[in-house]
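Aim 2 progress update. The chain analyzed this quarter is reproduced below.
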Amino acid sequence: MSMVIHLASRTAAPHRPELATAHDPVRLHAEAHNALSMALHYLREPQDNTRSAMRKAVQALAALRRLDVLLQRGAA
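Predicted structure tokens:
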């Protein structure tokens, strides 16, 4: 018997995890919460890491903006 290995189709659409979270308000809220938690963690370290804290704050704001857009569309 021969062993067959099935490979993914080359015509399949690429997996984009950001699209999967774009329509889930719970995941967007969790993403914002986690990013803000990490930003606070970076600021509380003995040598503060403000660049990383700013990057995480920007990620949190982006998640909150996406959540707002999603909720605006749902209310309309």
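The chain has one domain: 21-75. Residues 63 and 76 are 20 Å apart (CA to CA). These observations will guide the mutagenesis experiments scheduled for the next reporting period.
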